């Protein structure tokens, strides 16, 4: 599944290329609680078709009623539109109590500029879209790091990034479930496993499957701040070197499956045999996941995916949700293979 923003922009491009009128709505400000974050986008076609989301659905419905299937579809420079200013409006539009959001609506989206944006994003570039508010003229600028949306009286600046990437080491059953969830959340997923017996039974479509050694794949992927690495083989020969190389990158999440005891043994191997210190491997996560009492591969995958998304979204999880702390508090024995084999 593609990055949500790219899906919206690609669909909008298809509409415009076919000669249809359409608008692009962007959440530019919020006050109080808001169902969607600043920077969220949706596109609305003149026939009432919609892609993307800026609320829980009620505001989309109102925009469809106002502009969809309209004989006089709006045109001209961008317009600001506020929802949820009063308590009655907040209730009407399904906004949380006190919630208010402001949209910027853009009309007559230029096909050439939109095509360039979609092409650049599809190529993995990070692009800032700058919209001049007095006339709607758009300029594209390549950037090196993500930037928060900004809006002034003259322009809107919104940064669109390439897909988040996930590298999974190992092609076992747990990897299949995690890959499915990652795809569902818009990640571009690569699975590497030099073991033919595991690759032969792989069933998940939309994933890049490679037989290269994991450490070679880590280097080749040039992992950045929108990348994560998850080692799921339990095999030090496959996991350790790849994890070491990953720790030298800006990947936002690096973790390996295993019990508390196995995770501690891994850290000691890296320190004793590869000259690392506790500080230099502090970015390595393990046991991975959040504690939800997982027992089966799909449950474990949910746990791991939840932690990855929390880190991606800069959410600090409570200590009692960490696997090692939760299990330690529950009095689970270290040598209980039935509950600690995967560290979840």
From TrEMBL:
XdhC- CoxI domain: residues covered: 15-66
Ranges of residues in domain XdhC Rossmann: 166-308
Alphabetized Pfam families for the sequence: XdhC_C (PF13478), XdhC_CoxI (PF02625)
Entry-linked InterPro entries: MoCofactor_Util/Proc (IPR052698), XdhC_CoxI (IPR003777), XdhC_Rossmann_dom (IPR027051)
UniProt-listed PANTHER family: ALDEHYDE OXIDOREDUCTASE MOLYBDENUM COFACTOR ASSEMBLY PROTEIN (PTHR30388), MOLYBDENUM COFACTOR INSERTION CHAPERONE PAOD (PTHR30388:SF4)
Name the UniProt record assigns to this protein: Xanthine dehydrogenase accessory factor
Species of origin: Polynucleobacter sphagniphilus
